[in-house]
């Protein structure tokens, strides 16, 4: 058996890396168990001519398609939105686009403001200093002064808008609607030894340039220098407890398939909104018959995805095609609740460039814009490098029926039950999606686009895994308290997207990491009475 460590972190992605870095200055002995391995940038798809094909193979966003050694199967048959994740050091930050908005102040007070869902037990201002730390640690390119947010400093200049941004930006100005260069976790200049973005357009399947801020090249480098131990190829199956209802450590399968126990004084879950409830539910015992930390029955419930809508059109001039960062400009025009709408809360737009050569052809066929036979090549030339548009990221209100459970039959390679997803789109979400596609069509029309295509919800867009171990002051309807500590198990913490009370209408990575840093800070402040 391994020696007892002070802190055991389960998961080496966005939140696990941040909490490991923050706790390292305590000089405690910290071990992180990551079920995947380090990535080799020299093997990223962008380094070879087969890069488009590999987006659907070993670097696919779906673990069910990727089927790597580190992946586990997910039964998402009962969901119109399919789970996307990545298992390895860096987690989802390996494959994300680097789009880095913060949640808004209103997102933490939706019950008070709009009469739906629940308020968070913390607010934007509690997290604000940790947002700022995270921006510096990750290396965020942005433009200060965005009126959609409270004042925040820019770490480095924003990424270029390109021809696409100029064209769509003019349309937004003509309509009098908000748009702004995106906050991007992508370096626009040399930063802390990292090279700047060279606009390859390969953000979504690993950045060989090292410009995209995945946590394997940001937080983990410093955490390891500060003596945090990161063990790879270690798949955790369950957490053990003692008669005092305290966590004593975790069982995991190492790279040789051997089951090993790692004892610890503190256990921190950082496995995302699917992986964390999976382990907690699989840790059921006589003491915790419904799953660990689940006296409220909320573990696995209130799953939120962020349903995506898509709109794009074809323009009369060449734009940027797939060159440049995938997301470069946003709009928060429709983010807050508008009494004139028949839905609560709102969404943001992420403006997007065109597609790569093969993807242009595949989507062109699917959208009915590319005929077979005569005229095919001419139609393709009208599409390639001439398409652009946006996606709408819609706030997903929590519903208990949307949940993660353990599949009764499906298991991973080590025999651990796979997660099963049960999810439906709520009426509020459907109305919001319709609204977002209608306004997107307005924008593209004003911008001069033709052949406008809309689609919602995007099926393979379950990137944001939130809400399945929610934060709250009342142990009867939440899993952790206002500083991430389990109500039921006093030395168990959760720092990933599971703790979200509401989802907001923006990509969550920035907020997830700010929460992880905040919880780490709370742990450090309360170490002397943590076990009281």
The gross shape turns out to be: globular
- Gyration radius from CA atoms, angstroms: 22 Å
Number of separate helices: 12
Fraction of residues in β-strands: 15-25%
Helix content: 10-25%
Order of helices and strands: EHEHHEHHHEHEEEEHEEEHHEEEHEEH
Task: Give a quick account of the main beta sheet: strands, pairing sense, barrel closure.
Answer: 7 strands, mixed
For the secondary structure, the number of strands is 16
Indicate the structural class: alpha/beta
Runs in which pLDDT lies below 50 for 5 or more consecutive residues are: none
* Distance N to C terminus: 28 Å
Query: Averaged pLDDT, please?
Result: 96
Task: Give an overview in words.
- The chain is α/β, with parallel strands linked by helices and 532 residues long.
- The chain contains twelve helices and 16 strands.
- The strands form three sheets. Strands 1, 2, 5, 6, 7, 8 and 16 form a seven-stranded mixed beta sheet that branches.
- Helix 1 runs parallel beside helix 7.
SSE layout:
Elements: E1 5-10, H1 14-23, E2 30-33, H2 51-54, H3 63-66, E3 75-78, H4 110-114, H5 124-138, H6 162-175, E4 180-181, H7 219-225, E5 229-231, E6 235-241, E7 247-253, E8 259-269, H8 272-282, E9 308-314, E10 327-331, E11 347-352, H9 357-366, H10 376-383, E12 387-394, E13 403-411, E14 417-422, H11 427-446, E15 450-455, E16 492-494, H12 509-525
Parallel strand pairs: 1-2, 1-8, 2-5, 3-14, 8-16
Antiparallel strand pairs: 4-10, 6-7, 7-8, 9-12, 9-15, 10-11, 11-12, 13-14
Helix pairs in contact: 1-7, 1-12, 5-12
């Amino acid at each position: 058996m391994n020696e007892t460590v002070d802190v055991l972190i389960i998961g080496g992605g966005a939140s696990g890396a941040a909490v490991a870095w923050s706790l390292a200055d305590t000089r405690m002995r910290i071990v992180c168990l990551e079920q995947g391995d380090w990535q080799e940038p020299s093997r990223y798809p962008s380094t070879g001519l087969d890069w488009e094909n590999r987006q659907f193979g070993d670097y696919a966003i779906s673990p069910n398609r990727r089927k790597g050694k580190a992946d586990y199967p997910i039964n998402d048959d009962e969901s119109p939105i399919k789970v996307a994740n990545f298992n390895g050091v860096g987690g989802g930050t390996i494959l994300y686009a680097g789009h880095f908005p913060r949640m808004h102040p209103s997102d933490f007070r939706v019950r008070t403001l709009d009469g739906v869902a629940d308020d968070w037990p913390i607010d934007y201002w509690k997290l604000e200093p940790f947002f700022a730390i995270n921006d510096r640690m990750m290396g965020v390119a942005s433009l200060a002064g965005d009126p959609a947010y409270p004042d925040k400093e820019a770490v480095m200049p924003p990424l270029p808008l390109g021809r696409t941004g100029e064209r769509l930006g003019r349309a937004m100005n003509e309509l009098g609607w908000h748009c702004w260069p995106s906050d991007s976790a992508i370096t626009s200049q040399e930063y802390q030894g990292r090279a700047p973005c060279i606009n390859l357009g390969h953000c979504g399947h690993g950045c060989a340039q090292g410009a995209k801020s995945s946590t394997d090249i940001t937080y983990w480098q410093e955490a390891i220098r500060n003596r945090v131990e990161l063990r790879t190829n270690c798949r955790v199956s369950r957490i053990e407890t003692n008669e005092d209802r305290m966590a004593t450590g975790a069982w995991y399968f190492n790279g040789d398939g051997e089951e090993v126990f790692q004892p610890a004084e503190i256990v921190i879950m950082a496995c995302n909104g699917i992986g964390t409830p999976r382990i907690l539910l699989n840790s059921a015992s006589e003491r915790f018959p419904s799953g660990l930390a689940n006296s409220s029955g909320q573990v696995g419930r209130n799953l939120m995805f962020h349903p995506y809508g898509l709109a794009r059109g074809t323009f009369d001039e060449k734009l940027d095609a797939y060159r440049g960062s995938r997301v470069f400009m946003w709009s928060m025009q429709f983010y807050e609740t508008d009494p004139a709408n028949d839905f609560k809360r709102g969404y943001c737009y992420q403006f997007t460039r065109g597609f790569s050569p093969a993807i242009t052809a595949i989507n062109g066929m699917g959208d009915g814009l590319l005929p077979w036979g005569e005229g095919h090549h001419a139609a393709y030339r009208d599409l390639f490098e001439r398409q652009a548009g946006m996606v709408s990221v819609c706030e997903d209100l929590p519903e208990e029926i949307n949940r993660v459970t353990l599949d009764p039959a499906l298991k991973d390679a080590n025999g651990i039950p796979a997660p099963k997803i049960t999810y439906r789109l709520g009426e509020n979400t459907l109305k919001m999606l319709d609204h977002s596609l209608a306004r997107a069509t307005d924008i593209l029309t004003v911008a001069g686009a033709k052949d406008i295509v809309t689609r919602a919800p995007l099926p393979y867009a379950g990137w944001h895994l939130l809400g399945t171990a929610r934060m709250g002051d009342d142990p009867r309807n939440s899993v952790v308290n206002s500083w991430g500590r389990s109500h039921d198990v006093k030395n168990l913490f959760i720092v990933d997207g599971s703790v979200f009370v509401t989802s907001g209408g923006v990509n969550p990575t920035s907020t997830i990491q700010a929460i992880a840093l905040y919880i780490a800070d709370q742990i450090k402040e309360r170490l002397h009475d943590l076990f009281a």
